[in-house]
Amino acid sequence: MSFLELVKMRHSVRNYENRAVEKEKLDYIMECVRLAPSAVNFQPWKFAVITDADRLSQLKKAYPREWIENVPCMIVACANHEESWHRKSDGKDHADIDVAIAVEHLCLAATEQGLGTCRVCNFDVSLCREVLNLPDFMEPVVLIPVGYAQAQEMSAKKRKSLDEILF
């Protein structure tokens, strides 16, 4: 499959089968994440791959939505602000950008493996930090549910045309 076909297949899944994700697939996905580029190659990230039922249950409380209950795996992408590159001219911290690139590698790799994902950014950061016992310099940026999507028709993606995004 071409890269464009893969990108077209990736979509936010909010309806998962109650079925575990194979360790081999998670290992493959995380290897793709490991190889993601970052500013000055600082790789200012850590990822928690949560499949344990008790920890998963605790973590799901940080985003209490009905659709998330069947998710068999949650990956939490965290930014390490002590290791991230800061632009010299204005001090801009690139941790969020670097994590976003790595998360897109994750989502595309999961899609390639026949899995669904959804980027969840509107969650209880304090509760997530507590469940994962994170130090102050480590920020949970996004939760990524990972699992097998229940069969559903995919609606067409609404995207701006090239004319609208180029100048």
- Classify the helix fraction into a percent range: 25-40%
Output the radius of gyration: 17 Å
Count of helices?
6
Give the CA-CA distance, first to last residue.
30 Å
Taking pLDDT < 50 over at least 5 consecutive residues as the criterion, the unreliable ranges are: none
Main beta-sheet strand count, sense and barrel state: 4 strands, antiparallel
Give me the count of strands.
4
Strand order of the largest sheet: 1-2-4-3
Helix/strand structural class: alpha+beta
Order of helices and strands: HHEHEHEHEH
Shape: globular
Mean pLDDT: 95
How much beta, percentage-wise? 15-25%
Salient structural properties:
single chain, 167 residues, alpha+beta, 4-stranded antiparallel sheet, 6 helices, 34% helix, globular
Description:
- The two termini are 30 Å apart.
- Helix 2 (23-34) packs antiparallel against helix 4.
- It is globular and about 50 Å long.
- The chain has six helices and four strands.
- The chain has 167 residues and is an alpha+beta fold.
- The model has no long low-confidence stretch (mean pLDDT 95).
- A four-stranded antiparallel beta sheet has the order 1-2-4-3.
- The protein has helices at residues 3-9, 23-34, 53-60, 95-112, 125-132, 162-165, and strands at residues 45-50, 73-80, 116-117, 138-147.
- The longest helix has 18 residues, at 95-112.
